[in-house]
Amino acid sequence: MEDKGETVQLRPVADAAESSSPIPAKEDSEEDYDPHLHRDLPKPTNNVETLVHLLKCSLGTGILAMPQAFARAGLVTGVLATVLVGVLVTHCLHVLVRSQYAACKQLRVPLLAYPDSVACALGRGPPALRRLARPAALAVDVFLVVYQLGICCVYIVFIADNIKKVVDPYYQMAVEIHMLIILGPLIAFNLIPSLKMLAPFSALANVLTFVGLGIVVYYLLAGKKPEARDEPLDLWGSAETFPLFFGTTLFALTAVGVVIALENNMKTPKAFGAPCGVLNSGMAIIVLLYVTVGAIGYVFCVSQCSDSITLDLPKDDPLATSVIIMFAVAIFISYCLHCYVPVEVLWKGYILPRVQRSAPGRERLCEYALRVALCLLTFVLAVAVPRLGLFISLFGALCLSALGICFPALMEICVHFPQRASAARSVLFGKDVLLLLVGLVGLVAGTYTALVSIVRSFA
Q: What is the DSSP letter of 23?
């Protein structure tokens, strides 16, 4: 999803250490504390603004990769599975928000970052899990950093592929050369230290994305890719490629960091998870958009779908070329927003304290060095594996299966432990165990399939 990470709440994982110790059983005073009433927000958002932010963050490389995802799953399977994955993701986001609220209530604090909430929940859970509270918080940080850097790799490949499509009629170069050309501007743009300074660029990216997506839909409805005109549609797909579909869809639909931040910044947070609230309404619209683009995009190009549907638009068409340029510029800007997240996690959580002890006065220089190093790391990975669709599947399956499914289910199990056994709690426990298994299977199968496909792509 576009701009998923720009508002993720961050903090040093070491700060969660105190949360990792066993938390005493719930006291009566805990019932009197409502974290929502103690939030001091300078500029809270209303329900409509929150919904707009949620929708804005959902349109990007993920939705552009959905036609290829449908080509891997089949038309009917793709529609049904996208809806099911959407329901699964929405439920897990509800579980995460509820579990974070319970953790805030237990610690009597208005807000907690995701890793702190995991540490708090496991610290209150079964004795066997309490010792894992701090490692689990660290694991959340690791997955967040890997996922955000993975998005940056995806974005470098996306920008280079689309620039190559525009430039090739005039002068052909390898996609790696295009990556090298954009590396300098990416590093320079990534040295901007403040999200506030990036806000005008982010607004421009949003406008370009919405306009570009509208033009893409127009092309998909107006005709069919020439190479695919006589090819029959695959309705059901195959089990071999379905894990790649799962990883891509999970990458596209899951917005863990954004959802947490949006709920934390609401004027009326209780409306976020209501039956007809912001989350359910937003995810319903998002799933409908993804099913629509995936289905009509697959009908447009059948098995000839590229990693991004923009690469399947007509050649030498000025309007199609303008769309490609729009998305390339929008994703270029979004790269810096996503790289901001791992910089914050690594810098404030791990590097800054050491720099202040060993080299005081050089903080800004070291921060710039970290920003440049992360840009170079994502560039090297993108050059090493210039496979946009497989990158999306890999990071969706690896990181979002954990962040979006496994950890929320584990948190809910621990938050409701220990409590008096009942049939309702047994059903809740069974449901969370099932979610945990689904997440683990998706993580292992999706990651394995993506890695194998990456290896085969070089054969």
A: P
User: Rounded CA gap, 189 and 186, in Å?
Assistant: 5
Contact 163, 182 (CB under 8 A): yes
Are 95 and 273 contacting, i.e. CB atoms less than 8 angstroms apart? no
Helix (H) or strand (E) holding 392: helix 388-395
* Residue 143 CB neighbours (<10 A): 23
Return the half-sphere exposure (C-beta side, CA atoms, 13 A cut-off) of residue 68: 25
CA dist., res. 182 & res. 170, Å (int):
18
pLDDT number for residue 424: 66
Number of neighbouring beta carbons within 10 Å of residue 257: 25
For the chain, how big is the Rg over CA atoms in Å?
A: 22
Q: How many CA atoms does the CB half-sphere of 80 hold within 13 Å?
A: 9
Q: Are 120 and 103 in contact (CB under 8 A)?
A: yes
Both structure tokens of 66: 């959905």
CATH T-level topology, domain 13-457: Amino acid/polyamine transporter I (1.20.1740)
> CB of 248 within 8 A of CB of 65?
yes
Q: Quick one: how many helices (H) and strands (E) in the chain?
A: 19, 0
Could you give the CA distance from residue 47 to residue 246 in angstroms, rounded to a whole number? 30
Nearest to 446 by CA among 454, 457, 434: 454
Long-range contacts of 136-139 (CB under 8 A, 24+ apart): 136/407, 136/410, 137/13, 137/16, 137/19, 137/20, 138/13, 139/402
* Nearest Cα residue to 449 out of 285, 140, 243: 243
Domain limits, the chain: 13-457
Cα separation, 20 vs 24, in Å, equals 12
pLDDT in tens, 295-346: 999 999 988 888 899 998 888 889 999 999 999 999 998 888 888 888 888 9
The C-alpha atoms of residue 265 and residue 8 are separated, in whole angstroms, by 11
Residue among 388, 351, 391, 390 nearest 373 (CA): 351
Per-residue pLDDT tens digits for 1-39: 444 433 344 454 444 434 434 444 444 445 678 888 888
Q: Of 65, 165, 157, give the one whose Cα is nearest residue 386.
A: 157
Q: Model-level pTM?
A: 0.83
Tens digit of each residue's pLDDT (9 = 90 or more) over 418-451: 665 566 677 788 899 999 999 999 999 999 998 9
Report which residue type is found at 391: F
Three-state DSSP class for residue 275:
coil
From CA 299, how far away is CA 263, in angstroms rounded? 37
Q: Which of 302, 127, 297 is nearest to 230 (CA)?
A: 302
Two tokens at 360? Answer: 């005081």
Q: Which two tokens stand for residue 129?
A: 């899990």
Amino acid at 61: T
